Structures are given as structure tokens and as C-alpha cells.
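Backbone geometry:

***
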Amino acid sequence: MANNQNLWARRRILATGGAVSAATIAGCIGGNGDDDNGNGDDEVADISEYQHDGEEPDDQDRSDSLEFLQPADPDEDYDPVISFDSYSMQVANLVFDGLYEWDDELELEPKIADGMPDEEDDGETYIFDIQEGIEFHNGDELTASDVAHSFTAPVEEETQNAATYAMIESAEPIDDYSLEVTLEHPYGPFTMSTMAVPVVPEDVRTEDPEAFNTDPIGSGPFQFAEFQPGEYVELERWEDYWDEPMPYIQDIRFEAAPDDANRVAQVLAGDTDVIDTVPATEWDEVDGADGVRIHGSRSPSYMYLAFNCNEGETTDPDVRRAVAHSFSMQEFVNEHLGPAADPLSSPIPEVTDESGGWEFPMDEWEEEMPEYDPDQAQELLEEAGVPDDWEPRIIAPEGGPREALAERIGSRLSEIGYGADVQGMSFATLVDTYNTGNVDDYEMYLLGWTGGPDPDVYYYNLFHESQEGVGQGHFYEGQGDFHDNILNARESADQDERRDLYVDVTEEIIEYLPVLPAYSEHNTMAAREEVEDIHAHPSVSYNPRIVSDYQNTWIDE
């Protein structure tokens, strides 16, 4: 299981963060510091300004075509049982329907399922009913056996997705349209996360798994038309789609365009229809361009500064507090990311709190966070006995806003008499470095995580002691029941109980700062103006949604 968790952690880390050019980093970090002295604009832009109302076409019998550029090369695993990257899943989520799916507010709603499940045995057993008459692309009827296989295959086949379903003891069909899922123990995130399983046809998939991975058959609104490895995937509308509405888009082509400037240039020139991820460095150019609109949505992403609590000066919580007082996170986010991100004051993004109905005391947590106060930072470091020549090593992904944030922290520490050794690294090097706990490797690191509507994804993976050296590198021992509270919240089906436990955990994080929350980066797309009724989804793997209860994308030519 540890290997699966490690791979899962790496992918969630790799999936986050946009690019910033080296020139921008140098230009922004080398200023006179007025922005951190409270003289800059401290208003955070509202991403809701980039959500546009959709329109219905006059002619609803349409056969439109759309090209979509992705910001990274997908792994090209289109079988959702094994698919482990967001950009392969952007394709797969149009081919497969889920038992449940997240709407545009990250609330789980039935899709293949016929309503919400019946819960028994204090959250250890769930009875699901599924809709009758749903067919896969090959004409086979979707049954409870297919749903059961979709739940159990990731663990049985030891895939990288195993951790998501590892708590399932059994999934057994009752009849063709109902099944019983039994858990090894109550698992709080089950009804908020695990039930969103994409459903695959068991017989076709198990007959030839390798072929299924690159020519999959689902029950979704689109089916594979052509696949050229390393080049593109083309999907075509499935004319016998079982659900409504029928997509207006007839075919869609996915291509990777990892170079930010090239991807932006293509949409500005009208050479493509939609691009995923508007780089912060290109935001103003895209936002002000004729014929192009930015579409944005808050996301459950969580960027953070983590401290080495195992070795070095940062084992002292006062040193960690000093670093937090030495710069302004809000000013950094405004300057470097603008409308593309929101500052954070806890490990829980606002969209996670709202979509899960947690009602966490977010305003109180924000007030408790250390504010920019260089005098206080200097005093704390002196009282902690930190030597005058202290230059902590800060590691971060190279060439992005997190490296820029590391440079900002180093610059502000220099202003109060210390310094920093900032090292931008490739992701491959960084993930082999940040979890060693060795002070010679780092005293701070900057990374990101992407989650969903359940806090367990953040707290367990980023703070529980079982994940030391796997998904985290701060090695925080905690006070009292810190780690027990995280585990108890994970294994409880009572949301009120879980909320109280998470509040205690968060208050300790804010007080002792093993990790300093940074910002949540929004999901964004840029589309030609003729692309109508397209919306950025909070989950990047759902973009482009194309068709749902609240949208049906079309091209106004």
C-alpha cells in the first residue's frame, strides 16, 4: 500500500501549479518591497467575474467540432481503473459515466445510480440501486456487476488508485440493478469521494485490459474515434447516449501543448478553440484580447510552505512563526497570480468547506494567521537563538509561482538580517528530496495538493504520521491527540464528529505551523468567443465538461 500511496501523492502534487517565466520571477522579486509594507492593492480579484452565462442555440440539431489544448502531456491511460493523471481523465470523463458525479459546486449527485444509497451498519454497508436500461457503447447493458467490478478492480489489480478504494471489503451484486458494498470500517470520505467511481464494462475490460486502455468502451456521451499516441485523441458523439441532454458537439480533439506561450498564442490567433490553464504571466494579455474569453472556477487545490520539523532551526515553532511574519502572502498572491488564485488561511480551500457543508470557522482561522510584521519576525528569530548567518535552504518546483514565492521569502529574510538558499528543482528531483527530513536537503519546501469536498484528502495525506516520507516531509510529531484525531476523523461516518476533530487539528496547525497555507489556484480555460456555454469545473479532470444538467457547449459560427 505504501508504494501506491507514494505514487498517488506524487501525481496529486504533479497535477498542481501553473508556470511563471524566469524573467517575471526576477522582475517581481527584486523590487523595493513596498508591496509588503501595506502600500499595495490588497484586494483579491474575484474569479466569479470569469464565469459566463450560457446561451441556447436557435438550431438545436447541431454537429459542432471543438479542439481542446491541454497544458501537459497525458499518460495516455484512458481506462479509469488505472488512469492516474488529470489530463487522461479529462478524456475518460467524457467516455465514462460515474456512479455519482460532482456538479459545478463539487456536490456529489447521482448519475448511473438511482438516488442516494441506503446506509446500514453505522456506515459500514451501503446499498446502491442503479438505473435500468443504460447501455455501453457496444450495446451491452450496464449492470450491478459492472459497478461492483469498478469498485474492486483498482485494489485487486494493485493499481495506483488502490488507496481510494482500499477500505472496501466487498462489493456484491444483489441483482442486475442493485449491489451491496461493505467497508472494513466506517470511512468518512466514502459518500463524498469514493462513490464517484467511473463505471467500466467488466467483461470487455477484463477480456483485453491493454486494448481497453487505449480504445475504451464506456456509457458516456462520447466514444473513441481515433487515437494517435503522443499526438492526439479524437472523440465522437455517441448518438445512442442514454441520458439527456444530447451533446451539441459532434466531435472533440484533444492535443497537448505544454509550452504556455505557444498554447496562448494558438487561442489568441484562432488556431484552436479552447485551452486549459491560463498562465498568470499571460493573464492580462488573454483577458484583454479580442475574440477570447477566460473561464474560471475556484478549485480544491492547496499550495503550501512546509517546514522541516525533523532537523534544523525550523524544528522550533517560533522560527516557523518568524518566517510567516517575514512576508505578506496576500500581496504575493495579488502580484504574481492575481485573479488566478486566492490566499489561504487553512489546509482547507473555501470550495471544499462550502461543497462539503462543513461550516468551518474560516474567518476565525484567517484572523489567527500570522500577519506581515518584520519586526516581530526579527524578534522571534533573535529570541530563538538563530545564528546571524542562518540561510535556510528552500526548495520549490522550478520556473513557477512557488519558486517565485521561495525567492520572496528569501528576499524578506535578507531584509531582516538573514538570508536563504533558494533552489528551484525539477519535479522528479523535488519529490525525491522533500521527504527526506534531512536539514542538508531543505528546511522549507513549497508544493501543492489537489483534493475535493472531503477534508480527509488533505489532513490524512499531508499531516498524519503514517504518511511521513510518503506524501509529506515536515515530520511534525504533533501535540497530544493530533494524529489520533486525524485517524479518528477518517474512520468516522458522523460528519459533526469529524468536523470537531478537524477544527482541533487545524487550530494546532495554525498555532504550531508545521505547514503555512499559501494559496488555492483556480481552474481556468481560455476559449474563443464563438464557443458558447462552456464553464470551468472545480475539478480539473472534469474540464471540458461539454454536456451536463447545467451546460451544453456549442459553437456559434
Q: What stands out?
A: The longest strand covers residues 168-175.
